[in-house]
Amino acid sequence: MNKNQANFDANLLFIIFLFMIISCVSIYSSQKYLPYPDNFAMKQVVWYVAGLVISTAVYFFDFDQIKKISVYLYLFGVMLLSVLIAAPESIAPVTKGAKSWFNFEGIGTIQPSEFMKVFLIVFLAKLIASHNEKFLEQTIRTDLVLICKIVAATLPPLVLILMQPDAGTAMVICIIMIGMLLVSGIHWLIIASMALLSLMVLGVLVYIYVKVPDLLLLFLDPYQLNRIESWLDPFKYREGIGYQLANSILAVGSGTLYGKGFDNAQVVVPEAHSDFIFTIIGEEFGFLGTSIVVGLYFILIYRIIIIALQNKGVFECLIAAGVISMLTFHIFENIGMVIGLVPITGIPLPLLSYGGSSLLGSLLALSLVLNISAKTKRYMFGNNQ
Fold first, then answer.
1. Which of 67, 176, 187, 345 counts the highest number of beta carbons within 10 A?
2. Which residues cross the membrane (predicted)?
3. How many DSSP H helices and E strands does the chain contain?
């Protein structure tokens, strides 16, 4: 053995530090067009510090302990979502048509669904690991049982989040479930069948939208349907619901190759400091700046994959897979909606968008990955463990 000590991944921590700098600089630059007196850049620094404190606390937990408390974390998250639905508007106000936040005087707003994502990852990892330990010889029947377990565990938070309603976060919950299903060890024929069924459902939804769009109102509200229409032709609706997307596309495009320079953004994009922070980066630092950000995200995901491959613990690898699923979808969906590739869903850009709950949730997930790297021991001869 080389040294019987932890291999804390300093590279991953350094990447997080770079994102903190980019986030605070971009948020500071976006503040001049905001109708609020708050210093959101300074608040983001405070949230980052709070997130690093949480990361330090998580570091001292062993994964056997995390596995034991996973069910309590899951139940706590479901309880918070349930209380949120039942809470009066004085505590949980309806904002932009959604009841997604608790409002605490002196602290700000807390969004329970951001933490529920991480709690669900940990709980599903425990559920899958325990199932595979119990059924060492896997069959189609045991695989179907596992699928039922995973779906049953995902449904309560999914339904509660849809009741808010928050379709964007509900999509993230589904992606986490799908991502962990893919690495759960179930037979490839079942995965292929599920993929085919998903494509068929998507095809039916597209057909309904083209032929009889009013049917979509059975499970979408008119605002969500209008968002789809404004996504398909944002400049047609620029004076209304398409204003944010149209200006977002203009902002990113006007940055050209090198951008307009720091604090020189000229296109007004509503709430650019939160879900549309990528527009500030695109306009002020151009294609070069956005390429650096996307490259950092690739490196971030790559480091998580390397950490997972170096660790031989099934539970730990499943957690890493869940974190990868969550972050990858967040990144793709947010950047995609900012440049008009996908509809606007209100999903923040991890580690960059302003928002305490979103940032704390992302840092909590990454703290688990850092914990995995710290608990992986490297040997001179033989495999890692």
1. 176
2. 12-30, 45-61, 73-95, 144-161, 167-183, 188-210, 285-306, 313-332, 352-372
3. 12, 2
